[in-house]
Automatic annotation (TrEMBL):
<dbReference type="GO" id="GO:0005886">
    <property type="term" value="C:plasma membrane"/>
</dbReference>
<keyword id="KW-0443">Lipid metabolism</keyword>
<dbReference type="Pfam" id="PF00501">
    <property type="entry name" value="AMP-binding"/>
</dbReference>
<dbReference type="InterPro" id="IPR020845">
    <property type="entry name" value="AMP-binding_CS"/>
</dbReference>
<keyword id="KW-0276">Fatty acid metabolism</keyword>
<dbReference type="InterPro" id="IPR000873">
    <property type="entry name" value="AMP-dep_synth/lig_dom"/>
</dbReference>
<feature type="domain" description="AMP-binding enzyme C-terminal">
    <location>
        <begin position="325"/>
        <end position="400"/>
    </location>
</feature>
<dbReference type="GO" id="GO:0005524">
    <property type="term" value="F:ATP binding"/>
</dbReference>
<dbReference type="GO" id="GO:0044539">
    <property type="term" value="P:long-chain fatty acid import into cell"/>
</dbReference>
<dbReference type="GO" id="GO:0005324">
    <property type="term" value="F:long-chain fatty acid transmembrane transporter activity"/>
</dbReference>
<dbReference type="Pfam" id="PF13193">
    <property type="entry name" value="AMP-binding_C"/>
</dbReference>
<protein>
    <recommendedName>
        <fullName>long-chain-fatty-acid--CoA ligase</fullName>
        <ecNumber>6.2.1.3</ecNumber>
    </recommendedName>
</protein>
<keyword id="KW-0547">Nucleotide-binding</keyword>
<dbReference type="GO" id="GO:0004467">
    <property type="term" value="F:long-chain fatty acid-CoA ligase activity"/>
</dbReference>
<dbReference type="InterPro" id="IPR042099">
    <property type="entry name" value="ANL_N_sf"/>
</dbReference>
<feature type="domain" description="AMP-dependent synthetase/ligase">
    <location>
        <begin position="35"/>
        <end position="205"/>
    </location>
</feature>
<keyword id="KW-0436">Ligase</keyword>
Length: 448
């Protein structure tokens, strides 16, 4: 449905005029002594809920303003641009699609629900010039069969979050995208990053030329050493957290400045959830930082790359395994089919062994060549030792794969009807997991 206030420029869609609806609304004034301001809550935005239940984050008016103006300036949105917004308005990218026109004078075309098959048809019909994405949508579009309309109209600008480096170039080339501005920031976080140079795979940049103490004054983000499974910070003898060097993996955190509209943390409706997101005594005793839960790495030039979510990364054979990279490899082999990788516990073994859930409705995936493909780039400890083929995966409201049920069900053939395969390390091949082999595994009679 298209709601219009004032004059409507026809595009084939019959609009619903807002004026009559406003006239029918109540004229009674709600009496209140409160004078609303920029620091009042604007709305509640729910987190993705990929590993647990979504949390209601408090988003204040000033935060919405900063987000819209920041993206406007950094990305260069113009008054003559037409933005295509297929995301829900409770997602922060969707919020940008609704607020950018207020500040820039641009136009937003808002679709009630994302459709990979209809995306470019809508985009071209409405003469859009700017696309707003999350990384998962880019993968869904690439999974569509090629069409003559692919790249028919040059996309002047893409504003995205989560566009994986593994598909970046393919996405840009296939759909004729002139410029990508990738940014990083959680719904409720106190700081963000942005990649305005179009460096493939980078979520942002921190200068390596200016002294670190000066950078932290104006851009209070840092990357610290943590246990990648638990998220617990690794502290030095002074009790403070330790920063990572280039090439190392750490968790990105953002300083919380009390009563600061830009760098404050407004938290969640649930106060206990708010407390868990605040890390004290990071760089100095008495300071506080927002815990992102995201593992990243920084290169020698200052570009930052997303590695994984804490809770998704697992440890096997004394090595850390990042699920995000393996998911990207499987998706590439399977023509962008959806895949979720996670760690599962096995009796008698330390750590967790890797498992992949792959969408394959026809149960025809070539596991022999998949294993060969993965072994070209992955060490043996990082290979998925279990593979589950299923018809579909469950998604959150923001199109992210939900792993909670997958982790709970694991490789239990008594609870899962989908075929599950295990890696026979003697023959280095995937074999169908039957109940006898399953019993051997759960009774610690099986060697990985």
């Amino acid at each position: 449905m298209l709601y219009v206030f004032g004059e409507h420029i026809g595009n084939g869609i019959k609009p619903i005029q807002l004026e009559p609806l406003i006239a029918e609304s109540t004229s009674h004034c709600v009496l209140s002594g409160h004078r609303p301001g920029t620091k009042d809550p604007c709305f509640y935005a729910y987190t993705s809920g990929t590993t647990g239940l979504p949390k209601a984050a408090v988003i204040k008016h000033l935060r919405v303003f900063y987000a819209a103006v920041g993206v406007w300036v950094a990305a260069g949105v113009r008054s003559r641009d037409i933005l295509y917004v297929p995301l829900p308005l409770y997602h922060m990218i969707g919020v940008l699609g609704a607020t950018l026109p207020i500040f820039t004078g641009s136009t937003s075309v808002i679709r009630h629900k994302f459709s990979a098959s209809k995306y470019w048809e809508d985009f071209n019909r409405n003469k859009c010039t700017v696309g707003l994405y999350i990384g998962e949508l880019c993968r869904f579009l690439l999974a569509q069969p090629p069409k003559p309309t692919d790249g028919q109209r040059q996309v002047r600008l893409v504003i995205s979050t989560g566009l994986r480096g593994a598909i970046w170039s393919e996405f840009v080339n296939r759909f004729n995208i002139k410029r990508v501005v990738e940014f990083y920031g959680s719904t409720e976080g106190s700081s963000s990053l942005i990649n305005i140079t179009g460096k493939p795979g980078a979520i942002g940049f921190l200068t390596m030329i200016i002294p670190d103490f000066i950078v932290k004054i104006f851009y209070p983000l840092t990357i610290i050493k943590v246990d990648v499974e638990t998220g617990e910070p690794i502290r030095g003898s002074d009790g403070l957290c330790q920063s990572v060097g280039s090439g190392d993996v750490g968790m990105i955190i953002a300083k919380i400045k009390e009563n600061d509209s830009l760098y404050g943390f407004d938290g969640y409706v649930d106060q206990e959830a708010t407390r868990k997101k605040i890390l004290p005594n990071v760089l100095t005793h008495g300071d506080y930082y927002f815990v992102s839960g995201d593992l990243v790495t920084i290169d020698k030039y200052g570009y930052i790359y997303f590695k994984d979510r804490i809770g998704d990364t697992y440890r096997w054979r004394g090595e850390n395994v990042a699920t995000n990279e393996i998911e990207a490899m499987i998706a590439r082999f399977c023509d962008h089919s959806d895949a979720a990788v996670f760690g599962v516990e096995v009796p008698g073994e330390e750590g967790k062994v890797g498992m992949a859930a792959i969408v394959d409705p026809s149960i025809s995936l070539d596991l022999v060549n998949l294993l060969k493909y993965l072994r070209q780039s992955l060490p043996n400890y990082a290979l998925p030792h279990f593979i589950r083929l299923l018809k579909e995966l469950q998604y959150t409201g923001t199109s992210k794969i939900s792993k909670s049920d997958l982790k709970r069900e694991g490789f239990n053939v008594n609870a899962v009807k989908d075929p599950i395969y295990y890696l026979d390390t003697k023959s280095m091949s995937y074999k169908l997991l039957d109940k006898d082999t399953y019993e051997d595994i759960v009774n610690a009679h099986f060697r990985f």
